[in-house]
Design goal:
This is Nitrate reductase molybdenum cofactor assembly chaperone. One of its GO terms (molecular function) is unfolded protein binding. Keywords: Nitrate assimilation. It comes from Streptomyces malaysiensis. The chain has one domain (about 30-230): Orthogonal Bundle (TorD-like). It has 13 helices and no strands. By secondary structure, the protein is mostly helical. The protein is globular, with a radius of gyration of 19 Å. It is about 55% helix and about 0% strand. The relative contact order is 0.16. α4 (about 55-65) packs antiparallel against α5 (about 70-85) and α11 packs antiparallel against α12.
Length: about 260
């Protein structure tokens, strides 16, 4: 029996939406270029210790060699600033932007779940996702720390590997907005990431505006459900301090 005519437009709309949201199949060269962008963002969002600041020349050269486009322009703007700063100034700026400001912390599950039990479960689920892909975390950092999420995306590829980035797109938008409001050069790295994700929907825009105005959900609990990753209780919303920063999770002699 043929479907009723009234069902056809809905079916067409569903198929069109699915086609729009489905990532394009990438060639090996395109996938490699995308992985390089993700790894560069991961490196540049790590704490600027002596090893990372010593790698500034190779990072700048790598960014300068990227194919022309919005992502390359954003990263070039960042590395131009990054290369010209004194190491102590870089360290101070990083701590101010990412450790002392609630709206630009790099722990993504906070923006989705706030200080609730759901955050602990989200951290556990993310860690299990990493292990299922044969990848384990080193260095003691939480699995939702943005440089860790980016490194996983670079290694695992655009499907499952980038799923955590797509899931936390609204948090990334809020971090970008906060960095832009502070005129931090780190806004260019978040802008790069956003060019790699699907465009925001109207629902995304409304949710980010609401998150900026009201903050994430609040339920003052610790990370007990997460077991080995528990580091005590979260601070209340008006004094949120992310977990203490660990040394950079991944070390590299230069982008690969």
């Amino acid at each position: 029996m043929s479907p009723q005519p009234a069902t056809i437009p809905a079916m067409v709309r569903t198929r069109v939406r699915a086609a729009v949201r489905r990532p394009a199949r990438l060639t090996p060269e395109e996938a490699g270029a995308r992985a390089l962008l993700l790894r560069l963002c991961s490196l540049l969002l790590q704490y600027p210790d002596a090893e990372l600041t010593a790698a500034r020349p190779v990072l700048t050269t790598t960014v300068d060699a990227l194919p022309a486009g919005p992502a390359a322009r954003h990263l070039a703007d960042f590395t131009a600033w990054f290369a010209g700063q004194e190491p102590e100034a870089l360290e101070r700026h990083y701590v101010e932007m990412f450790d002392l400001r609630r709206r630009s912390g790099l722990y993504l599950t906070y923006y989705l779940h706030g200080d609730t039990r759901r955050r602990g479960m989200a951290l556990l689920a993310l860690s299990r996702q990493y292990r299922a892909m044969g990848w384990d975390i080193h260095g003691g950092e939480l699995p939702d720390h943005l440089p860790v999420v980016l490194e996983f995306a670079a290694l695992a590829g655009g499907g499952a590997g980038e799923a955590p980035l797509r899931r936390h797109r609204r948090g990334l938008e809020l971090i970008h907005r906060a960095l832009a409001d502070s005129e931090s050069p780190y806004r260019h790295i978040l802008a790069t990431l956003l060019t790699l994700l699907p465009p925001p929907t109207e629902a995304d825009k409304a949710a980010v505006a609401n998150l900026a105005a009201e903050g994430p959900p609040n339920e003052e609990v610790g990370l007990d459900p997460y077991g080995a990753y528990a580091h005590g209780e979260f601070a209340p919303p008006d004094a949120f301090v992310p977990p203490p920063p660990a040394p950079p999770t991944y070390r590299s002699e230069g982008p690969r």
